[in-house]
Write a structure and sequence with these properties.
The protein has 12 helices and no strands. By secondary structure, it is mainly α. It has 2 domains: 286 residues, Mitochondrial carrier fold, CATH 1.50.40; 31 residues.
């Protein structure tokens, strides 16, 4: 998966806010494609007439704002998910490192998968809420907001319903990790040079390529998960799911029996179209926020320029740089005081 590079010139809170803002912005802009993807996976009536027709039906039946159904929940989930993912990743990665602090690419991907599962476990109820809010008609809504959705599901269906389909997250992590690994071990052959020489554009293409392959392999698990999240006997038309089932295995059987094997990849078009703008916006927005923070920390001459400020040691951390600036100011003040004292004596 593509990831923004850590810059030691930013504080921890600045890095977190940059990633959070970039994630919220990219999710919000690409939300219409995410809505179409999830509705296609659930199997609501919108997706029965093809990819382009789905957009028109959503607009006709629910209005323009329907393309951002569930986006607030998705953005809300981003911050705890990122924090838990980062914390568990740092914990897991130290278990796989050798005595020299090195780690193989395969182990790094597995570590990322384990961290992702841990973060998903703690934030999974919000994902269920997102699916329910997207699957419903926003003009005839059953759920009103995040807290109302959580309390309604818990009250009517039980606490475990908030984790319905979570096992598919674990199962889907296997083909996802394999897809990432297959892409990354062949990048040197693709670009005909070593990975440490890749440019920012090459890393962006690598991230999109890895995401495309990995998500395609794990997509059937995600489709069944969305159907399980959406189905409920307490909702009109059982939540809009196109098949009725009892449990994960039965859901696979019913989908293949009634809709065909290829229906497990329903919504893949919208998902593939989302990858490039999503990661493009994620990278560019992160860089914009990062430049502003670097300027605030004193490393660059302008928040709109990559030009480094003359005389500033770029290897210093933000706290070290501020401490060094205070030291120089104190020296200057002492020098001025000494000069005034000498003039008074003469």
């Amino acid at each position: 998966m593509a990831a923004v590079n850590k810059d030691d010139r930013l504080t921890g809170s600045q890095s977190f806010l940059c990633v959070g803002f970039a994630g919220i912005f990219s999710k919000t802009v690409t939300s219409p494609l995410e809505v179409v993807k999830i509705l296609s996976q659930v199997g609501t009536f919108h997706c029965k007439y093809g990819f382009m027709r789905t957009f028109l039906l959503i607009y006709q039946r629910e209005g323009f704002r329907a393309f951002w159904k569930g986006n607030s929940v998705s953005c809300l989930r981003l911050f705890p998910y990122s924090a838990i993912h980062l914390g568990t990743y740092k914990t897991f990665i130290h278990l796989y490192m050798d005595e020299l602090g090195r780690i193989s690419q395969w182990k790094a991907i597995v570590t990322g998968g384990l961290a992702g599962i841990s973060a998903a476990l703690l934030t999974y109820p919000l994902e269920v809420v997102e699916t329910r809010m997207i699957a419903q008609n926003c003009r005839e809504s059953t759920y009103r907001g995040v807290l109302h959705t959580l309390s309604s599901i818990k009250r009517h269906e039980g606490f475990l319903s908030l984790y319905r389909g979570f096992s598919l997250t674990i199962l889907g992590a296997v083909p996802f990790s394999i897809g990432c690994y297959v892409v990354f071990i062949n990048l040197d052959k693709l670009w005909q040079e070593h990975h440490f020489r890749f440019t920012s554009l090459q890393n962006f293409i690598n991230g999109c390529l890895a995401a495309g392959v990995a998500q395609s392999l794990s997509f059937p698990f995600d489709t069944i998960k969305r159907k399980m999240q959406a189905q409920s006997p307490y909702l009109p038309h059982c939540g809009g799911v196109d098949v009725h089932f009892n449990g994960m295995i039965d859901c696979f059987k019913q989908v293949i029996k009634t809709k065909g094997v290829l229906s497990l990849w329903s919504g893949i078009t919208a998902n593939m179209l989302k990858i490039i703008p999503y990661y493009g916006l994620l990278f560019s927005c992160f860089e914009m926020c990062k430049q502003f923070c670097l300027y605030q920390n004193g490393y660059t001459v302008s928040p709109l320029s990559y030009k480094l400020k003359p005389g500033v040691d770029q290897s210093l951390g933000p706290e070290e740089l501020q401490e060094f600036k205070r030291y120089l100011r104190n020296r200057q003040i002492q020098a001025q005081s000494s000069s005034m004292g000498n003039r008074w004596q003469t």
